[in-house]
Design a protein that fits this description.
Layout (H helix, E strand, L loop, with lengths): L1 H41 L11 E2 L2 E2 L8 E12 L15 E11 L2 E8 L4 E11 L11 E11 L14 E12 L4 E12 L4 E3 L5 E3 L4 E12 L4 E10 L11 E9 L3 E8 L6 H7 L10 E11 L2
Antiparallel strand pairs: 1-2, 3-4, 3-16, 4-5, 5-6, 6-7, 7-8, 8-9, 9-12, 10-11, 12-13, 13-14, 14-15, 15-16
Length: 306
């Protein structure tokens, strides 16, 4: 009996020791989880400045997550000033662009697009340099770079002597801030370059360019949320470079945007009939003061392959 009591006492002491060790380990694990959850909650995270990859005619700072594919359809009807002759531009000359963009690595998207105007084929890339953080964290703005190379792929074009004459370039630095839950704004200085520009023959018979090859511009855009999925959008492009002739007019656009988890739809009125950004900034001859506005829309579809 004494031996039995001795063994039971040993077993009970061992069980108590195991419970004590298990309890301490579980307590430490719970405390670590609570600490990790608190740290995760309090850690600043990137904000969603805009839902769409672009606002009207300009790219936004947003770059999709890794392994996300975006398809875009961008359409511009003719100008409204012909009235009923072409049903206020709906049946007039139109421009359309079809594009795909993919994010192979974090913060970088690459894409290709085809546009009806001049049968333009563009290759583009966008990289997120900085992302605004919530809870007042640093950085307090988002900064991204966007660039493209567009090729005029028409079969015959008398102005082109060399293959390089068909090429134009666009570079833009985008700086954006989400002011509050409703308002986001962005400013975007840009540089467009055309290897070949319009020319004329002067009185001496010499060929003179009508425009500079390089063109500086600045864009302002914004989005205001009416509801979580319904927004007001606006865009303004202002040329900074003065050319000898054919100075482009500012591009003024305003419209609405609706979004879902995988779609974004924008419909707007503006005075640029082009879609590829260097053509918007370089060649816009529609004068908003004469009512030369047109209707346009953008549709984006997103697929997540994560």
């Amino acid at each position: 009996m004494k031996n039995l009591n001795k063994h039971l006492s040993s077993v009970l002491r061992m069980a108590a020791l195991c419970l004590l060790i298990f309890g301490a380990t579980s307590w430490n694990r719970l405390m670590a989880q609570d600490s990790l959850q608190t740290e995760t909650i309090n850690k600043p995270r990137p904000v969603t400045t805009f839902e769409s990859q672009f606002i009207v005619d300009n790219q936004t700072v947003m770059v999709s997550r890794k392994k996300v594919l975006n398809m875009a359809i961008q359409h511009r009807f003719g100008t409204l000033n012909n009235g009923r002759k072409d049903f206020y531009g709906i049946f007039g000359p139109a421009d359309i662009r079809l594009a795909l963009n993919y994010t192979p690595i974090n913060n970088l998207s690459v894409g290709i697009g085809v546009t009806k105007q001049n049968f333009l084929v563009d290759f583009n890339a966008k990289y997120a340099l900085l992302k605004q953080m919530d809870s007042g964290g640093w950085p307090f703005v988002s900064i991204s770079y966007f660039g493209n190379i567009a090729i005029d792929a028409r079969e015959k074009q008398g102005n082109f002597v060399r293959g390089g004459d068909r090429i134009s370039y666009f570079n833009q630095l985008m700086i954006a801030r989400k002011i509050n839950e409703k308002l986001s704004i962005q400013v975007s200085p840009s540089l467009s370059h055309f290897n070949n520009v319009p020319a004329y023959r002067d009185k001496a018979g010499n060929i003179q360019p009508k425009m500079n090859n390089d063109h500086f511009a600045i864009a302002f855009l914004g989005r205001y949320k009416i509801t979580e999925r319904f927004h007001l959008i606006a865009n303004y492009d202002q040329a900074l470079t003065q050319h000898t002739t054919n100075n482009p007019h500012p591009n003024i656009c305003f419209g609405i945007e609706t979004t879902t988890i995988s779609h974004a739809f924008q419909i707007f009125a503006g005075n640029s009939g082009s879609i590829v950004p260097q053509y918007v900034n370089f060649y816009n001859q529609n004068d908003y003061r004469k009512g030369q506005f047109l209707i346009g829309f953008n549709i984006t579809r997103r697929w997540n392959f994560n």
